[in-house]
Amino acid sequence: MTDKPAVICVFCASSSGRDPTHLAAARALAHAMASANVSLVYGGGTAGIMGELAKTLVELKGSSSVFGVIPRALIKRVKAGEEGFDAEGAAAGGKAAETIVSAEEAERLERGGGGEREAFEVLNEGKFGKAIIVEDMHTRKRMMAQKVMEGGPGSGFVALAGGYGTIEEAMEMVTWNQLGIHARGIVLLNINGYWDGLLQWVRNAVQEQFIAEGNKDIMIDVNEVKDILPALRKYRIAEGRFKLDWSQS
């Protein structure tokens, strides 16, 4: 029997950041995933590192290789000819949109009702893959995690560079792993020491006995894109993981 293909959920920024190395890493990861026939599930963004990753993988493997999950509130409606997302020009104090749709597409979405349904008219399927619209962040994370849990060997979660949202999503998957909700690996791509502060916090929390020694490697880090997929394939469940029964939840 043939194994199901691996599915990797990537958490990353919807902006490009200051250092172009992070956009290059997204493109390199897309190439690695395409070569290994690995599918992507992600937050559905069309801008920044999110958009670069999805767009590159679609160019290499087609729209069926990418599945985005975007909350309705993070979609920006633009008129024909209007500029789309500009991370540097985002309004101060506000969360910039992650996905851009035309006013006409937005109207079709509203007429269609939205919810957990395929909404290919919202994103340009030929450019950023398939996507659905959900109503809230909790549904987004649950759906992305479910896709990974249903994937074949080597499925897991990867964090590229990002801000509050990226770290929150990655750490929730770490917590779910510790609680026994899933057994998939979580990998940080630590380019140029981007995640050094977080990794130091883990070491300190272990030393202060807030994280068990047996759980310190639930989240692992690599320095190069080429090491991400092998790290997920070789991932081993942490010895200190809680043995809880979630079957009745």
Fold topology:
Elements: E1 7-11, H1 21-35, E2 39-42, H2 48-61, E3 66-71, E4 75-78, E5 99-102, H3 103-112, E6 117-118, H4 125-128, E7 130-134, H5 137-149, E8 156-159, H6 164-178, E9 185-189, H7 196-207, E10 219-222, H8 228-233
Parallel strand pairs: 1-2, 1-8, 2-3, 3-7, 4-5, 8-9, 9-10
Antiparallel strand pairs: 6-7
Brief rundown of the structure:
This protein is α/β, with parallel strands linked by helices.
Helix/strand-derived category reads: alpha/beta
Percentage of helical residues? 25-40%
Overall mean pLDDT score? Answer: 84
Distance between the termini: 31 Å
Q: DSSP strand (E) fraction?
A: 15-25%
What's the oligomerization state?
Answer: single chain
Count every beta strand, where a strand is a DSSP E run of 2 or more residues: 10
Structural descriptors:
249 residues, alpha/beta, eight-stranded mixed β-sheet
Write a structural description.
The chain is α/β, with parallel strands linked by helices and 249 residues long. It has helices at 21-35, 48-61, 103-112, 125-128, 137-149, 164-178, 196-207, 228-233, and strands at 7-11, 39-42, 66-71, 75-78, 99-102, 117-118, 130-134, 156-159, 185-189, 219-222. The strands form two sheets. The chain has an eight-stranded mixed beta sheet with strand order 6-7-3-2-1-8-9-10, sandwiched between helices. A two-stranded parallel ribbon has the order 4-5. Strand 8 (156-159), helix 6 and strand 9 form a beta-alpha-beta unit.
